[in-house]
Amino acid sequence: MPAALHWAPALAAMFPHAFRTPTMALLTILEFPDARLRTKAVPVDVAGIAAPEFQKRLDDMFETMYDAPGIGLAASQVDVHQRFMVIDISEEKNSPMVFINPEILGKEGEEVCQEGCLSVPNIFADVTRAANIRVRATDRKGASFEMDADGLLAVCIQHEMDHLDGKLFVDYLSPLKREMVKKKLAKAAREKKAA
Ligand code: NI
Questions:
Q1: Domain region containing 164
Q2: Residue 3: inside a domain, yes or no?
């Protein structure tokens, strides 16, 4: 193996957002009101997690999320309608988490948080969600795990799990507000086209 490749994984772990291997690819993120975002995702066959194509998809999703930049990305957002998502809420972008077939085992409390979404660019709105959750999922090595989450991580997990059910954070807004969001995005798309 050439010497340059030896340090590549270590460097990639230190600077995942700045370091792109030639095999990584940025994926296209679907944007609201694209009907494909409404697809209910099907469970991942855990026997296929180790397959190079699935592992590469996870890498590409991280790359796409860091590049955007965002803190979470559900497979539904890149037009893959299977139940998995990637999350990294760390400032340093060095704590990647993979949730395959996630399930919420318990919810407690309420918290209002201003949310945004890579599929609804430049729109932010308050959403009420459970403050504490217990979640079970499978990681990228195929191992099942359970964890408690609160704060931003709890919000992010619930937001991404909604995507897997075809739900967007704008669905929590009043119909009037949601129409305003639609118009704002359509205007932004027109301006982008004209530019
Ligand atoms: Ni989102």
A1: 8-194
A2: no
Q: pLDDT tier at 146 (50, 70, 90 boundaries)? A: very high
Q: Within 10 Å of residue 88's Cβ, how many Cβ atoms? A: 23
Q: How many domains does the chain have?
A: 1
Among candidate residues 31, 108, 111, 160, the one labeled active-site is 160
Separation of CA 95 and ligand 1 centre (Å): 19
Residue 92 bears catalytic tag: no
Please report, to the nearest 10 degrees, the dihedral formed by the alpha carbons of residues 10, 15, 17, 21 taken in order.
Answer: -30
Distance 1 CA to ligand 1 centre (A): 39
- The answer as to whether 145 is a domain residue is yes
The string of pLDDT tens digits covering residues 53-104 is 999 999 999 999 999 999 999 999 999 999 999 999 999 999 999 999 999 9
Burial string for 121-145 (b: 16+ CB within 10 Å, else e) reads eebebebebbbebebebbebeeeee
User: Which CATH number belongs to the domain containing residue 147 in this structure?
Assistant: 3.90.45.10
